[in-house]
């Protein structure tokens, strides 16, 4: 079995091979044809990840099977592992899974009965998002090792931030700054330095990746003072003026317009947010191909 669980499982050379295939898929009309059945199990909401994995499967001739969890037999008491085993018994070779509990994809992978793709596990990781983000930056900026890259916002609750720090570390990006309020920026980041000042941290940045405020992941004792957050950390055109004139503005989505980013920035000339979404299909085609080959 092969799995795609976490960016730490890969070195730079494997990531380069995946990106080569992703860029190839973006350019070619001659696509390979595979016949595998790929189940999609999404225990959390998703628009981009689920749909782009479905499209990626279809473009490669694979059969995406969308398990409707609102009507699945887990509602009658069946366990997740029993659901998984039944899907495998029906001929599913790979499972794309998103789950609110960190480590669930890793647990299924340890059973070694199907290929597992982690489409986001709680506050753990979101490796395919990091891959498509890296693809989008390289596509525009080419050599990215010397760029100043910023991750802004609710870093503490973000699996995307974990996978991004890891992928930039593996890739050799030295100048990474994590910006946010003290309570949302880890004291010991996976990679990069931290800043609690948006204007200082964003100064001369080549890439700014803005994160969603993830209210659903707050613990009971966490309180969010939105107006203070917006005053100090919302990405506005005024703040963006401190970065490089050719700065790339990115956001993994879904965006809370007006909260962490203004519409002027999200829809502005520096925005690559929909370019990220487009590249998601090609990055996920590369992941699916790697697992099924
Ligand atoms: N970026 C991302 O994971 O978006 P979805 O939740 O819509 O899949």
Structural class of the secondary structure composition?
Answer: alpha/beta
Bound molecules: phosphoric acid mono(formamide)ester
Number of strands: 10
The residue fraction in helices comes out at 25-40%
Biggest sheet strand line-up = 1-5-4-2-3
Distance between the termini: 10 Å
Counted by DSSP, the helix tally is: 11
Mean pLDDT: 96
Question: What is the string of SSEs from the N terminus onward?
Answer: EHEHEHEHEHEHEEHEHHEHH
Query: Uncertain runs with pLDDT below 50, 5 residues or more?
Result: none
Major sheet details = 5 strands, parallel
What is the rounded Rg?
A: 19 Å
Quote the beta fraction: 15-25%
Report on the architecture of this protein.
By secondary structure, the protein is of the alpha/beta class. 39% of the residues lie in helices and 15% in strands. The chain contains eleven helices and ten strands. The chain has helices spanning 12-27, 48-59, 80-89, 104-111, 127-141, 159-171, 198-201, 226-233, 237-240, 263-266, 273-292; strands spanning 3-4, 37-42, 63-66, 94-99, 115-121, 148-152, 175-179, 193-195, 207-210, 248-250. Helix 4 links the parallel strand 4 (94-99) and strand 5 (115-121). The chain is globular, with a radius of gyration of 19 Å. The termini are close together.
